[in-house]
Specification:
Elements (H helix, E strand, L loop, with lengths): L6 E3 L4 H10 L3 E4 L5 H6 L7 E4 L8 E4 L2 E5 L4 H6 L1 H6 L1 H7 L5 H4 L4 H6 L7 H8 L2 E6 L2 E6 L4 E3 L2 E2 L6 E8 L7 E10 L10 E10 L4 E9 L6 E2 L1 H7 L6 H14 L10 H21 L1
Parallel strand pairs: 1-3, 2-3
Antiparallel strand pairs: 4-5, 5-10, 6-7, 6-10, 8-9, 11-12, 12-13, 13-14
The protein binds flavin-adenine dinucleotide.
Length: 289
């Protein structure tokens, strides 16, 4: 593969990595390389030095007070298989298990998926419904930000040059005792595997014994310049049973939450219809739980 990289630096501490990134504007972090190597090969990015994050100890999943913390360099296969993630954040486990196909999942990291800031990043809708908090470090110190504030546009995130994403915190869901939680991730595309989402949706709702939905969280990918929460649709269905009338109103509201474009993967009109279908299916499933 012909890439313009002249140097690979393998730091063993975060401080060392930050020092290299701060001192070399021509450098860029690399984790699994499944986005960056393709972009370098295609000339969409040009850097002469890559800083390999593999030796920094940023991979791993642990239960901590009030939630689950996932290191930025944790690979998709580990996330998809982790018992705690599967139990508490099934949409994220499902999303990680649909990134590319298994060989890609064995290299692709959560941090890379976020930092690449694609509107189609599959873990993003799941992290939006989980209301994840991201920890970012730089030579200037550590800051925490909500995933809602992370995505700024296609390929643009709140990460400043020289900053590293180190971990993602997922707060445990508090649901009333008489509710059951339903959480799903689904995506559409021309194939089951090795396909960037044409539309993706993550949904979470607490279903009361009378069938009404509480704490509804909906988020979509590939339907706007960034992954988005569908707050208008959430408001429409919250406190109601997802009967055909509520579902129809939610689908109508959803059309104001999203702003898809025509591109090589699908026309905007198809994306609007697909988003409506995914939402309707999620709500129908919630009605059956
Ligand atoms: C065949 C194929 C299929 C794919 N299918 C999918 C798919 O179905 N769904 C999907 O969402 N994506 C898909 N992708 C894209 C890619 O695999 C994912 O986005 C992956 O999670 C990127 O992670 P990575 O570790 O490989 O990132 P890298 O390529 O190493 O890095 C990506 C970007 O993030 C930056 N970066 C990485 N880690 C950090 C960090 N900790 N802090 C700051 N910046 C960082 C890098 O500098 C770079 O700009 C696919 C890619 C390929 C090649």
């Amino acid at each position: 593969m012909d890439v313009p990289v002249q140097q690979v630096i393998r730091p063993t501490t975060v401080a060392e990595a930050l020092a290299v990134l701060a001192g070399r504007p021509d450098s860029r972090p690399i984790a699994g390389g499944t986005d960056l190597m393709v972009q370098l090969r295609d000339g969409r990015k040009r850097v002469s030095c890559v800083v390999d994050l593999g030796g920094l100890g940023l991979a791993g999943i642990r239960q901590i007070d009030g939630g689950v913390e996932i290191g930025a360099s944790t690979r998709m296969d580990s996330i998809a298989a982790d018992d705690g993630v599967r139990r508490h954040f099934p949409a994220l486990a499902a999303a990680a298990g649909t990134v590319g196909a298994w060989p890609i999942q064995c290299r692709a990291t959560l941090g890379g998926n976020l930092a690449n800031a694609s509107p189609a990043a599959d873990t993003a809708p799941a992290l939006l419904v989980a209301e994840a908090l991201l920890t970012v470090v730089s030579a200037a110190g550590t800051r925490r930000l909500s995933v809602v504030d992370f995505f700024l546009g296609p390929g643009r995130s709140a990460l400043a040059p020289g900053e590293l994403l180190v971990s993602v915190f997922l707060p445990l869901v508090q649901i009333p005792p008489d509710c059951r939680l339903v959480e799903r991730f689904v995506k559409t595309g021309p194939r089951l595997e090795q396909v960037i989402s044409v539309v993706s949706l993550a949904g979470r709702a607490a279903v009361r014994t009378d069938g009404a939905l509480e704490s509804v969280r909906l988020a979509l990918g590939s339907v706007a310049p960034t992954p988005v929460r569908a707050q208008r649709a959430e408001t429409v269905v919250t406190g109601r049973r997802p009967d055909p009338v509520a579902r129809r109103e939610a689908v109508q509201a959803l059309q104001h939450d999203i702003a898809p474009i025509d591109d090589v993967r699908a026309p905007a009109r198809y994306r609007r219809i697909a988003a409506a279908v995914l939402l309707d299916r999620f709500l129908q499933e919630a009605a059956r739980v």
